[in-house]
Design goal:
alpha/beta
Length: 201
């Protein structure tokens, strides 16, 4: 639930929101029940994938309040949404979903790997980071980023570590690259280490 609350904390009140890859529909339910927004829809790639979501909506008596849509990314979405949440996927999958025109103004994204590539991709798509938060759940770090349409210049440090200013997460990323460099001896990772170490708190 800590991840759901963190995602919800980045949602503007009364947003028209679609949660892509909603899984058990935990986020839409939380947003509705906590009066953050009642205009919320969940989608997933197949009707089978939405079975748990349907059960949860029935349990919370929200079956007639929250719409569920079978859709591969944005493919079957007819309505327009001002905010999209994509969470719990890898960056390559997220990039495929977002590789299109006319995306919503606001995107809340949590990728579980290659977040540096995601930051670079979103920057090239014309989105700026408006807030980035790090949470630690079961000893795993989760990076959650809110993007809005707009331009910004990201430093190499911003791309590698992000804009959360979480010192513990910075040390985690630094340690990760040190371990990769120790195995690979690839100078690219040595440069990453130098970039992070040069950045003063």
């Amino acid at each position: 639930m800590i991840r759901i609350k963190a995602l919800a904390s980045l949602v503007d009140k009364d947003s028209k929101l679609i949660d892509i890859g909603t899984d058990h529909a935990l986020l839409p339910i939380y947003l509705y029940e906590n009066k953050i927004t009642k205009n919320v829809t969940g989608s997933d790639i197949s009707s089978n994938a939405l079975e748990f979501a349907k059960v949860n909506l029935e349990k919370h008596k929200l079956s007639d309040k929250i719409k569920l849509i079978v859709s591969d990314g944005f493919d079957n979405l007819d309505d327009e949404y001002d905010t999209t949440v994509i969470s719990g996927m890898g960056t390559d999958t997220i990039k495929k979903i977002l590789d299109r025109e006319n995306l919503p103004k606001k995107l809340i994204i949590s990728s579980h790997k290659n977040v540096d590539k995601l930051r670079l991709f979103m920057n090239k798509k014309g989105y700026k980071i408006t807030k980035e938060i790090i949470i630690k759940d079961n000893n795993i770090y989760y990076d959650i980023i809110k993007y809005e349409k707009g331009k910004e210049i990201l430093s190499n440090y911003d791309i590698l570590v992000g804009k959360s200013n979480d010192s513990e997460y910075k040390l985690y990323v630094l340690d990760k690259y040190k371990k990769i460099y120790a195995k690979s001896k690839n100078n690219k990772y040595l440069e990453y280490i130098n970039i992070i170490e040069r950045k003063q708190d």
